[in-house]
Design a protein that fits this description.
- It is a single chain.
- By secondary structure, the chain is an alpha+beta fold.
- Helices cover about 35% and strands about 20% of the residues.
Length: about 230
């Protein structure tokens, strides 16, 4: 049996209100995610700005990413060159080097940037130095990143486990920060670490609330046409 005009109108209103409610709930959820993400970013920025602490015995990404640490020891021979670019130099490489701490550990240090023209230059491996920087677990590898060219020492992303195996070190990366009295012309040029966490929740919330408004408008127009 076909519905009466009144029944069809009620059905349309139920569908309209239900859709608006669902879309508004999704927008509200994204606002809650936004507040959580902003709190997380603030916590990480505070961690990175704090006074440096000794390297934890067993650092983890969940607990220690962006933790500012200080390690004492010697740079060891060997480098990994990760392709990148940086103003004002243009194309170049991040230099990842092994670092042997005074406590007997061998970790990785991102020493900073060198221009492409300096790739083959000899670089010193300083001894008995203190490196201050932030712990980082880079998320730069996906299905589109080529495998590194080992023969040319050309890497296209910082892949921490693979870099650690290549340099026979623990999978721990400290991104060195510039020393207070460092030479601005020195190479590698330390590349200060900053918190890089994707936060698109406001855009998502606006999208969901916009769809809710559009759904409500279409539902009202449909209901008015049915009533007419």
């Amino acid at each position: 049996m076909s519905r009466t005009p009144r029944a069809r109108l009620v059905f349309a209103l139920v569908i309209g209100l239900g859709g608006v409610a669902i879309l508004c709930a999704l927008g509200t959820w994204q606002l809650q995610r936004l507040a959580w993400k902003e709190g997380l970013i603030a916590e990480l920025e505070e961690r990175l700005a704090a006074a440096p602490v000794p390297l934890p015995e067993a650092p983890t990404e969940a607990r220690d990413e962006y933790l500012r640490v200080a390690v004492q020891g010697d740079f060891a021979p060997g480098e990994i060159h990760v392709l990148t670019s940086r103003a004002p130099w243009g194309p170049g490489f991040r230099v990842i080097a092994p670092f042997e701490t005074e406590t007997g550990r061998r970790i990785l240090v991102d020493r900073g940037f060198i221009p492409q023209t300096e790739k083959t230059d000899a670089r010193a491996t300083p001894e008995d130095v203190e490196v201050v920087g932030g712990l980082l677990w880079p998320q730069e590898v996906d299905g589109f990143v080529p495998d590194p060219d080992m023969a040319a020492n050309m890497w296209f992303a910082r892949d921490l486990p693979v870099m650690a195996r290549a340099l026979e070190a623990e999978p721990i990366l400290v991104v060195a920060e510039p020393a207070p009295a460092s030479d601005p012309e020195a190479r590698p040029a330390p590349w200060p670490l900053s918190v890089n966490v994707t936060n698109d929740h406001l855009e998502y919330a606006i999208t969901w609330f916009g769809l809710a408004a559009a759904w409500a408008g279409m539902s009202i127009a449909f209901a008015m046409r049915r009533r007419g």
